[in-house]
Write a structure and sequence with these properties.
The protein has one domain (25-131): Cupredoxins -  blue copper proteins (Immunoglobulin-like, Sandwich). The protein has 1 helix and 9 strands. It has one helix at 2-20, and strands spanning 27-34, 37-39, 42-45, 50-57, 63-68, 86-92, 97-103, 109-114, 126-131. The strands form 2 sheets. It has a 5-stranded mixed beta sheet, with no helix packed on it. Strands 2-1-4-7 form a 4-stranded mixed beta sheet, with no helix packed on it. β1 (27-34) and β2 form a beta hairpin. The chain is globular. It starts with a helix and ends with a strand.
Amino acid sequence: MIQRRLAVVFIGAFFWVLIGCGGNPGKTIRVTASDFQFMPNALTVDAGQEVALSLINNAVQEHEWVLLKQGAEVVLPFDDDDEDKVFWEIEAGPGATKEEMFSAPQEPGVYSIVCGKPRHIERGMIGTLVVE
């Protein structure tokens, strides 16, 4: 019985130590993709912050939320030539929700977000991520 109580106390203390040492707490972001737009299309996170992103696809076609590296510009149409410009991406099928974690860029600045599916950028499926 004493060992069990000690184990519970130890685990609880360990949990609070981890929280206290967390540095840059995480952020949860929900983005809805529909009819060639992201809502919201402008987001802000802290540099290096852990981000839980939920991409909710309310459309009948597949969409991607592609975060480009700082200063990167795509050459239309977005294709394999642009893959080296991608910092991070997530994809969701029609009517699906996809959730993943990523670490925000360490360098503050304004980063472009695009949908990597053919002709979606041209139809206005773009956004920005401000890293502070």
